[in-house]
Amino acid sequence: METLALIDDDAIVLDEAALGLAALDREESPIEAEALLAPYLTRVSFIAAQLMARSPGVSSNLDRAHMLRALIAEEHGFTGHEKSFGEEAGADMMALLDTGHGLPVALSILYVGIARKVGWRATALGVPGHVLIRIGDEPGAMFQDPFDEGRVLDARALKSVLARVLGANTAPDPAYLAPMDNRATLIRLVTNQAARARRTGDLERALVLHERMTGFAPFSTSLWWERARIEQHLGRLAAARASLVAMRETTRDGALLGRIEAALSALAKSAS
């Protein structure tokens, strides 16, 4: 966790970082966690080695996308399952490798991680309510839906997916297909778990996950705000104050700074 917080975003190995986050829930010591992670890292490396062996001569993004689908979805059986939306394990990378099923963000991390290991350009796209991936850069990039067995999306299929997840009347917006950097992708992954914990009323678990996220993304203002809210709900006013103070260091927005000061004042009154 400490390493993730200190390194540049480009230095994060996305799939390995996601597996490392999953290992934190197995309550192992660092040495035990390393042994626990080993078979999962080996499996991902094996799939990447298979891709590397088959990739010579593949030069188009379309062919790369089809090759990823054939290997990850068809051969290894990784795809989406509706039950993943109701389970926190859907956003757990170890569970994904164990079961073959996961949420769109978890599957996207797997696709992107394997593609990058063979030197291909790949990124996760933060579509609201869904995550797609892009192989290559624009112009000429190809889009895929890892949740739908890695389906390669032409312009018409991409429009259909966006209409389904955003609503048919939603106006097209290029921001819906904006690439997420590595930390944003990891935040999206863990946020899914935290949201499920909140829905079931497990605030202790939600707090653990927000502590985790502020640990590897300490400059994300919104994460500190949500962490402070959870701490306040749990009656941990000193911790909530500390989170708000940390949040204050992440922004120069005058309106937001005003909200932070107001929240700090309210906490001080609650504590008195």
What is the CA-atom radius of gyration, in angstroms? 20 Å
Order of adjacent strands in the largest pleated sheet:
3-4-5-6
Total beta strands: 6
The total of helices stands at: 12
Which architecture name of the largest domain does CATH use?
A: Roll
End-to-end span in angstroms?
35 Å
Reading off the top of the CATH hierarchy, the class of the largest domain is best stated as Alpha Beta
| Coarse morphology | globular
Helical content class: 55-70%
CATH topology of the largest domain: C8orf32 fold
Low-confidence stretches: none
**How many separate domains?**
2
Instruction: Describe the sheet with the most strands.
Output: 4 strands, antiparallel
Question: What does this protein look like?
Answer:
The chain has helices spanning 2-6, 14-23, 30-54, 61-75, 93-99, 104-117, 155-166, 182-199, 203-216, 221-233, 237-248, 254-271; strands at 79-80, 101-102, 122-125, 132-135, 142-145, 151-153. Helix content is 60%, strand content 7%. The protein is α+β, with helices and mostly antiparallel strands. β1, α5 (93-99) and β2 (101-102) form a beta-alpha-beta unit. It has twelve helices and six strands.
